[in-house]
Specification:
Blueprint lengths: L4 H17 L5 H9 L2 E5 L4 E3 L7 E7 L2 E6 L5 E7 L4 E2 L2 H6 L6 E4 L3 E7 H10 L4 H24 L2 H11 L9 H8 L3 H11 L1
Antiparallel strand pairs: 1-8, 2-7, 3-6, 3-8, 4-5, 4-7
């Protein structure tokens, strides 16, 4: 069956993201890796991952927008990440340890996602020593991202968190609701509205 143009372009984008990190990979090694991935076209408002499920594939977002969140004790959705193109849709702890996730990841827009299975990644680590760099740098990137988020709550006020979000996520500003953004920033929606009015 012939692949769609979107699927081919998604795999090409994923291939470029790998070679940007692993510059020593040969063309044959890269071709072997790309054979291991699949591409999903996911409609809006569909779960990519659910709480209690083990994430079996890490997702490279070629197009679209997703939200990661968990449910508080009173059932409130707490947004932990807003993910657009060139990001990974993953609960990395669930993926690396192959344990049930505590998070939901849900599409906010139609998405095209490149899926790289855990078993295939482990095979590529064993087969290509150069590829181990990819796993290490992805882990470092996600760790730094999480650390920055923790420090933003410790050392920044609500307005600073909002301004930093706008500066660091220019592609997201007009694609998410105030409800999701206020949840991500850890503030009430009314507070976010006041901050936006003040800045404008």
């Amino acid at each position: 069956m012939k692949e769609s143009k979107d699927n081919i372009e998604a795999k090409n984008a994923f291939s470029k993201s790998i070679t940007a990190i692993c510059t020593d990979l040969t063309e044959d090694e890269l071709a072997f890796i790309i054979l291991k991935v699949t591409v999903s076209e996911v409609e809006s408002k569909v779960f990519y991952l659910r709480e209690g499920i083990i994430q079996e594939s890490i997702g490279f977002i070629y197009s679209g927008l997703l939200r990661s969140y968990y449910l508080s004790d009173d059932g409130k959705e707490i947004t932990t990440a807003l993910l657009c193109e060139d990001n990974t849709a993953t609960d990395y702890r669930s993926f690396i340890q192959q344990i049930p996730s505590k998070f939901y990841i849900k599409t906010l827009e139609p998405c095209i996602i490149v899926n790289f299975p855990y078993t295939s990644i482990q095979q590529c680590y064993s087969k290509f020593k150069n590829f181990e760099k990819y796993g290490r740098l992805v882990a470092e990137y996600l760790l730094i991202k999480r650390q920055n988020r923790i420090e933003s709550f410790l050392f920044e006020n609500a307005e600073q968190r909002y301004l930093n979000f706008i500066e660091n996520n220019p592609r997201l500003h007009n694609r998410i609701t105030l409800t999701h953004l206020s949840s991500f920033l850890g503030i009430e929606r009314q507070t976010l509205t006041r901050i936006r009015k003040k800045i404008l």
